[in-house]
Amino acid sequence: MHYSMKRYQIAFLACSTLTLVACGGGGDTPTTTTTTPSTAANKIVGTWARCNVTGTTSNKVVTTFGALSAGPRAGGVSGQASLQITNFTDADCSAGGTLDSSIGEGSALFFLESAVTVDGTVAGITAATQYSGYPSPAVDFDIIAANATQLFFGDKSTNTGATLALQPTQIETAGYTKQIALTTADLVGIWKDCNADGGNSIEQIYTFTTSTAEIVATDFTGSTDCSTGGVIAETLNTTYVLGNIVTVNGSINGITNSTQITFTDTTDASNQLFDLVAIDGDVQLILGDTEGDPNGETEANRATQLSGQAFQKQ
Description:
2 helices; 8-stranded antiparallel beta barrel; elongated; 46% strand; 8-stranded antiparallel barrel; 18 strands; mainly beta
């Protein structure tokens, strides 16, 4: 995209690093039926995240389950899942985020089979499903369950899942939270940022409605805090469209969940910017990192991570 404001921060992201993790431990002989997974199993589809604390450090696991299809095991269903882990230097998954590269990238097959009854003591859930596959193929007899906002694996504190007889009978209490893409209503408002540029500064203001974004860049000469001598350098009027959830590496404010956003110049539809957007604590808006490759000028070059620049809600 030949974006006229390229010298200012304005960024984008495309592909999502999806994720999945198996955790937990359980009880005695599982209660199963010959019913194939249906409504209960479909609830796991989506992206989920959990912060795990170990002493003074933590890690965030983000897992995505793709759409389900029949087979290849008789009477069961399967899909693609992938996993991302980000390690943090604090105990709440917010500081010093570093992507754990030891687990590799990409996705792998997972399997869902018979329905399993659990006792409802965790989130009121009574219907789970037999689960096996990525990322722990050695633990081939787990269970999984989800509601609208949380996902749980089997409690393997007693039953390890190493054999069918050791399949967990209950779900663990620590769940994963459903990750939700931003809506246009989340963006509505005015977001501002000021960056020092030598002895000068540059202010950028994004004004979002539910369908448009006006972007105004102002140069301040002799002021490093955007306070005096401001002259508007450029104004760009765009429409925008939000897309899918994209998983990012947590290095910016501990954020691992972002949303695709595509800006289109209202005077030149061929002038587009393919970016990511995330909102931190309802007060900061963060766009994707397009200062290099990917540059956000095409869908294939949509940003893959967030930038370090945060726009403050006005």
